[in-house]
Design goal:
Number of strands: 17
Order of helices and strands: EHEHEHHEHHEHEEEHEEEEEEEEEH
Strand order of the largest sheet: 3-2-4-5-1-10-11-16-17
Distance between the termini: 30 Å
């Protein structure tokens, strides 16, 4: 097909790995709660045992109480809260064991660099990967979403124009390989910093998540979008840039980057970097989980 919506050649997923939910922050907690309902359903519904990790938040106790109340109200069987404040806490065997029986894990918002600085490389980090590998849904909202990518937007300046020195990246927790994620995307005008990050690492796929919007990344690298906004996909595999020459805060030349705006109800193949038929994506995602 010439409209770019041809069916992708979708590879099956290995094992029983679960999808990862990347939420752009400010998800609806009061009305339809589409994203949170989907998370609880994927976690097992009435049998869901959810672990909430609130390390990213400076008000972690309040964040734990908020999400515990929400998930129990949505029908989960139980909610466990974790909020390690130091690497030694995240590396305790008992911290890891708290995730061993969870059917899903939810990472709250806050500061993604705080989250990865405390969790990356610890028993808790390994437990997140083990949980996903055995089929537990892992989700992150806002900072939690950024941290789940292989590369992480540590911090940067807003604006639509990519500029040298306006973004700094760090290693993420790598539950979604080959990506870098930014959140509150439309609301905080973050296109420029995502373009800057991809110009410096063109092998990555950039995902810009609007608020109350979720990218569900399935094990076969298909991405399903739900929620109120859209996911902006930045593909720099054929771009040209002068990012490596610049100094100071000068505007960056970026030519040939491909941008896709994917709203709710559409699917995207992150491996082929192209839009796919919803029917084909649903079929492949269902087969991969069986």
């Amino acid at each position: 097909m010439s409209d770019g919506r041809r069916r992708a050649n979708l590879a099956p997923a290995s094992g029983a790995a679960a999808p990862v939910m990347l939420i752009g922050g400010a998800e609806d907690k009061l009305r339809g709660r589409q994203i949170l309902k989907r998370f609880v359903k994927q976690a097992g519904g009435a049998q869901a045992r959810i672990a909430v990790v609130a390390t990213a938040s400076e008000i972690s106790e309040q964040a734990l109480q908020l999400y515990e109340s929400l998930f129990l109200e949505l029908g989960a069987a139980g909610v466990t809260g974790l909020r390690p404040q130091e690497r030694a806490e995240a590396d305790r065997p008992e911290t890891k064991s708290l995730l061993s029986e969870a059917t899903a894990v939810f990472l709250t918002g806050g500061n993604q660099l705080r989250l990865t600085s405390i969790v990356a490389g610890t028993r808790l980090h390994r437990a997140l990967h083990l949980a996903q590998d055995r089929g537990a849904m892992v989700a992150g909202t806002s900072a939690g979403a950024s941290a789940l990518a292989s590369h992480m937007m540590a911090f940067g300046q807003p604006g639509a124009t990519p500029r040298h020195g306006h973004v700094q990246t760090a290693a993420g927790l790598a539950l979604v390989e080959g990506t870098i994620v930014d959140q509150h995307f439309e609301q905080r005008t973050r296109l420029g910093r995502l373009l800057s990050a991809i110009a410096q690492s063109p092998s990555l796929v950039g995902l810009g998540l609007d608020e109350d919007t979720c990218a569900i990344v399935h094990p076969n690298h298909t991405m399903e979008v739900i929620g109120r906004g859209a996911v902006t996909v930045v593909d720099g595999s054929h771009m040209e840039t002068d990012a490596y020459r610049l100094r100071g805060r000068r505007p960056m030349m970026v030519s040939g980057a491909r941008l896709h705006s994917i709203p709710s109800g559409y699917w995207f193949d992150l491996r082929a970097r192209e839009l796919i038929h919803e029917e084909g994506a649903r079929t492949s995602a269902r087969e991969a989980s069986e």
